[in-house]
Amino acid sequence: MDAAVLHHPEPTGQRPRLLPVFLPHAGCPAADAARPKGRCLFCDQQAQSGQTRRSLADHLASLARSLDELAGRGGGPVDLGFYGGAFTALPDGWPERFLALAAAYRERGIVGGVRCSTRPDVCDPALLARLRGLGLDMVELGVQSFSAAALAACHRGHGPDAARAGCRAVRSAGLRLGVHLMPGLPGGSVQDLLADADACADLGAEAVRLHPCLVLAGTPLARLRESGGYAPWPLAKALAACGLTTLRLWRAGVRVARLGLAAEDSLLRAILAGPWHPAFGQRARSRALFLHLAGAWQAAGRPRGAFLVPKRHLPDVIGWRRETAPRYARLGLTPRPHDETFFLLPSA
Ligand code: SF4
Fold it and tell me: Which of 57, 85, 88, 314 could bridge across to 118 with cysteines, CB 3.0–4.6 Å?
């Protein structure tokens, strides 16, 4: 058999520079006494973002200062990402205020795009259409899972139908869709995670973030773990599951925008248990690439010998602390860098 030419399975595309604006718990039903929903079992937005809760007026003023500073340095364009709460459920008039500020800087070329995160059950089609008209480009939905068991166990306050309806509403409003999934939730399995990846692709998501479930101090999940009602996924299981899921998403043309939570000091202090690792993303990506290449190696008749790798992908092939390299050695492949953009298996 001839040498097989292969390409990296990750969808290509521009990655804009993102300026995250964290609004911890803003718009969250758990922070609103007038709404009947409780706090999601796993959530501590303040630990995740490293930001304390401030008034929305404060956030707006500090965003204006950051953008002025960026403009003064001749920086931009950046995409603004309003994260940490439910942007579409902010008090009346606030989504519009943030978008008006973004639009003013967009006109000056400082802001290139605007995205927000929110919950699927606060995606009113008319509101989304209006926000799109005010400059919103993309909505990242904190779906966490489409599994009925996992959603119920996490006290999300809605089921899979609402999760799907939220995704459809975003796309129907002409907005780009991102989805956040949380592997390893109580009541969730690896099979559920793979089904979630398929659902994201079917519903038209262009990007997915995979944030494995961690047990953070002070959350209801911490109390559940203490009482023996929950055990987080071990790191090895989370890496294997996220590697498989990443490849599934890549093959469906969906970008994996993030794997694992960023190393905020406040997050690291709050983690009681769970699969957090500083190189989680690199390790899971390396596994996804290995699975892809190993499948092609099998289809090519299990050739052995020198395996040519684009220089820029060599770190992903070798893996964090060379952990993936032995897997290629077991297939009889010896990775060698070359200047081309494709991988080349030896002839069988
Ligand atoms: S995950 Fe979102 S909706 Fe749930 S408690 Fe946290 S901020 Fe509120």
Answer: 88
Q: Which of 119, 121, 144, 213 to mutate to test the pocket of ligand 1 (most atoms within 8 A of CB)?
A: 119
State how far the Cα of 70 lies from the Cα of 89, in Å rounded to an integer. Answer: 28
Q: Is residue 48 within 8 Å of residue 269, measured between CB atoms?
A: no
Q: Which one, of 196, 274, 206, lies nearest residue 235 by Cα? A: 274
Asked if the model's pLDDT at residue 35 lies above 60, the reply is no
Q: Burial of 226 by CB count in 10 Å (0-12 exposed, 13-18 middle, 19+ buried)? A: exposed
CB 258 near ligand 1, within 6 Å: no
**CATH code given to domain 18-278:** 3.20.20.70
User: Does the pTM of the predicted model rise above 0.70?
Assistant: yes
Selected residue with higher pLDDT from 290 and 263: 290
Count of positions (residues) in the chain: 348
Chain Cα centroid distance, residue 247: 14
The answer to whether 137 touches 115, Cβ cutoff 8 Å, is yes
> Look-up: residue for tokens 């931009």?
76
CA distance 257 to 109: 24
Ligand 1 in reach of 142 Cβ (< 6 A): yes
Looking only at the bridges linking them, the beta strands covering 305-310 and 333-338 are parallel
Could you read off the pLDDT of 272-291 as tens digits, one per residue?
999 999 999 999 999 999 99
